[in-house]
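User: Is it possible to get a 3D structure for a protein together with its bound compound? The compound here is 2'-deoxycytidine-5'-monophosphate. I've pasted both below.
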Amino acid sequence: MRVICIDGPAGVGKSSVARRLAEVEGLAYLDSGAMYRAVTLVALRRGVALADADALARVAADLAIHLGADGRVTVDGEDVSPELRSQRVSQAVSHVAKVPAVREVMVRHQRDFARRHLRVVAEGRDMGTVVFPDAELKIYLDADPAERVRRRLGEARPAEEGGEGPESEETLKDRDRIDSTRPVAPLRPAPDAWRLDTTHLTLDEVVARVRARVRSGT
Ligand code: DC
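Assistant: Yes, that's possible. Here is the predicted structure of the complex:
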């Protein structure tokens, strides 16, 4: 099995880097955030209270989540990918992701995905610290919060194209706070992670540096 982990805070550009790397290195792309978003979407649809950890755990355990090697997510056969980045999911997802029993189910799915695909780039918050501690390479991307908010602005689809506009600075900061202070699998670099501050780098520059690191085999 060959696993490359990319962890880091919201809006740092992990997905863009991971997708590119998957393409050029011929790896399957594991978008672990999309899995937490899928559970959140279903919980919201069912009217489950975000404070009800047991009910959230039941939602996670009952769902047939399938993650395609291209990052698309289906839940009980329905492709939910277009809804996963909505504001209401972004605002709620960190509350769902902090529930230990939800994480247990997700970690199992993530390891299954890697076993099935064998060559994987895994993106998230705890890929290098918890899910794949023996990964071949662990990368931790960071950037100043203002720059991460700016990147989110660039990604957002305008309202006239059916988008909702960007995730607000407040939501992004809230998510980071909850993700990095939760007791189970908080966002933090693995001790053996290679850390890259991308604040002043373009996406192409980040990808080039990551590829050089992958090539160097460390
Ligand atoms: O990467 P993303 O923004 O799609 O992730 C959405 C949320 O899911 C993030 O705020 C925290 C949670 N998450 C997590 O707890 N662990 C992961 N490995 C990936 C995401």
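The pocket of 2'-deoxycytidine-5'-monophosphate is lined by residues 10, 32-33, 36-37, 93-94, 97, 124-127, 175, 179 (CB under 6 Å). DSSP finds nine helices and eight strands in the chain.
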